[in-house]
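Researcher: I'd like a candidate sequence for this fold, 374 residues long. If you have to choose between options at a position, lean toward the conservative one.
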């Protein structure tokens, strides 16, 4: 049976006090109420400083565990891709740092894993998503990346023995990451000689849409390599078809937000186009003349049309393919909601939009209201 979680990196929580308070007031109880008092799984996002504070202070950790359990949000997955500051004024390439060439990335990931092992019941299975080695091609040729991943795998194997909580570290392909396609990521992980029992992939549907990767390609690579898909992140990118040689004005607002919005597309002759971010694409006449642009911007998945010539990339078919392939874990990730133009959100703002998205995901997965906690 599929299970669905909400990735909490949508909330700009950078300190422990705010995180603890969130379970008693603010968006979490409001969202649970909108979902009939039965919230989905909670996709944990802990900035490094919070993860270390909890790891190093047993009394604080006890308080945190007690609050979390009382809130009633099931926990089986975490997002350890951003190290911290994910809602800062400028994020861009910082979201990938430190990358897997750094021992800091290994230490942070292990700290999150230790906390997850305490949160989850013995005998359960879960996942932790992380960056695709780093930003740009350089990490692929750095042997320390694979060495640190092997160390992380060994740590997770030890946790499984000590706590009976089985965690998979799931690398998440992203446009312009060292590994930007889920299929190539699976093949890289399957290199002979390295242990992969606790290593797998996080398949982000927005990222695959941007780079033009089909669900058939992903699932074929997973089958051929034997690499596990630990979770699918349900997300949608923007698909833009310029009208009359002009780009829609909505893109100007998106270009000002903190994150990368990598752009891929094709021109009128079918030739591939690519930009590292939305601002350089907007400044290039070739973008306005393109037949189609696919933009890395996580937009609300329950909507399909956002402006004239601007739609969300389809995700339901890929979701159905994933379920048919036996993948069980799914996580809604729309971290951009706090800064998206109001016209893209529901009237009730962030909470109303998340509720609508979660209902759409639940329906697509075939979960009724009584099964959302699966």
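Model: Candidate sequence:
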């Amino acid at each position: 049976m599929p299970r669905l979680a909400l990735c909490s990196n949508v909330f700009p929580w950078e300190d422990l006090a705010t995180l603890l308070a969130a379970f008693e007031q603010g968006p979490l109880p409001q969202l649970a109420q909108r979902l009939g008092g039965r919230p989905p799984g909670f996709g944990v996002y802990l900035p490094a400083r919070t993860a270390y504070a909890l790891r190093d202070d047993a009394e604080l950790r006890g308080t945190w565990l007690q609050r979390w359990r009382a809130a009633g949000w099931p926990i089986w997955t975490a997002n350890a891709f951003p190290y911290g500051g994910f809602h800062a004024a400028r994020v861009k390439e910082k979201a990938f740092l430190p990358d897997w060439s750094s021992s800091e990335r290994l230490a942070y990931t292990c700290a999150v894993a230790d906390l997850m092992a305490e949160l989850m019941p013995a005998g359960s299975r879960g996942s932790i998503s992380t960056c695709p080695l780093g930003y740009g091609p350089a990490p692929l040729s750095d042997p320390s990346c694979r060495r640190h991943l092997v160390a992380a795998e060994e740590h997770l194997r030890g946790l499984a023995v000590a706590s009976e909580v089985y965690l998979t570290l799931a690398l998440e392909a992203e446009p312009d990451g060292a590994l930007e396609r889920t299929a190539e990521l699976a093949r890289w992980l399957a290199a002979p000689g390295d242990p992969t029992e606790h290593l797998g992939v996080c398949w982000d549907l927005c990222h695959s849409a941007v780079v033009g990767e089909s669900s058939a390609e992903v699932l074929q690579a997973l089958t051929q390599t034997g690499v596990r898909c630990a979770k699918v992140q349900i997300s949608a990118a923007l698909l833009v078809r310029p009208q009359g040689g002009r780009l829609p004005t909505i893109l100007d607002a998106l270009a000002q937000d903190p994150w990368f919005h990598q752009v891929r597309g094709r021109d009128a002759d079918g030739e591939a186009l690519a930009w590292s971010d939305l601002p350089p694409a907007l400044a290039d006449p070739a973008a306005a003349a393109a037949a189609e642009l696919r933009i890395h911007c996580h937009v609300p998945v329950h909507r399909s049309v956002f402006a004239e010539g601007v739609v969300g990339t389809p995700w339901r078919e890929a979701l159905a393919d994933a379920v048919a392939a036996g993948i069980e874990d799914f996580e809604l990730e729309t971290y951009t909601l706090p800064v998206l133009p109001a016209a893209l959100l529901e009237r009730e703002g962030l909470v109303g939009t998340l509720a609508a998205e979660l209902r759409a995901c639940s329906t697509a997965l075939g979960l009724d209201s009584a099964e959302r906690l699966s």
